[in-house]
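User: I'm writing a tutorial on reading structure tokens. Could you give me a worked example: one chain, its sequence, then its tokens, then a sentence or two explaining what the tokens reveal?
Assistant: Sure. Here is the example chain.
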Amino acid sequence: MISSFRVPVKEGGGVRLPGRRPFVLFLILILAGFLVACEDSTTEVSPGRFGETGEIRVDVNRPLAGGTGGVETALVWRSDGRWVLAERIRYRGEMGAERVVNSRLNPGELAPEYASLIRQLNETVGLRIVDEVPSDLDPACEPPRSTVSVTIVDALRDSVVRWDRCGDGDLFDLTPAGAGPDPQAARIVTAAQLVRFFTLGDEDRSAFRGSIPFAQIDAGETSPAAPPESLVFVSDVGEPPGEFVQFWTEHAGSEVSLPQVDWSRDMVIVASTGPRTEAGHRLRVGRVLPVGTATRVEVLEERPGDFCAPASRDTHPFHIVVAPRGPTPVTVSDPLENRVPCGL
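And here are its predicted structure tokens:
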């Protein structure tokens, strides 16, 4: 039989407390139970919608000249509102020129827009791509079709999902009509359109709009050949023109081999401004534009902005590129000036 529990009583009717060691153990057991109960009741913080903390990226690779060149555009938009755009034009795998643009507004103003778009891509009927549009397609988009990719990075989940589809045009004039190869490709193109709209707006255009592809051969602050104006070299016999050989020897030295150029189908353009008397001038070919039965080459010059104090130095900036031969005559425009803020 189990004996009943009795509290020991001192003489005089006072209560006698248990010994010190059992009492401390009793308190420890109570505290431990409380902590376990707290751990059991702790709730995990939900990571939210996919991509809510992270970034969304759009890549559009548009082929040019039957796929021998192209324009690659990448637009990355972070959940804190910041974004960056990079455009590159290539010919035969080599880059010709690049444009990089960063956020124009206070990033905090665009953070709510980012969250709104992520909500739509997670939840909105007709726009939802997360967990609804397959991400395992790897379509072969034949020229002149573009490859359009939308990537969502979720920082909290440490997860990345990318969707690839085919469409028509560049980032700035994409349309969901005709997107493929599956019917849901239209949602991927629409997502790319929305990212571009929220960040760049409707007014921006590709820096290489209408251009045939080209690749850089050389560029720098000073050419030892010091051409007084821009030059264009074309061969009628598929061999390097004598004038180009002479120019290259003066520019690079006789010990440097001639650049690899298919003279049966390509032309070489040397953009030059003539001499400059201060540092900081940079020159680049912007676009090579077929215009009817002729070709016009646009040249851009970056120079120090107002109130800068560049060092005095004699320079001769240049940019040498190779491009598929365009209709002749080929004319090179006077440089379009772009003043760059000090320190950039």
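What the tokens reveal: Residues 1-41 have pLDDT under 50 and may be disordered. The chain is about 20% helix and 35% strand.
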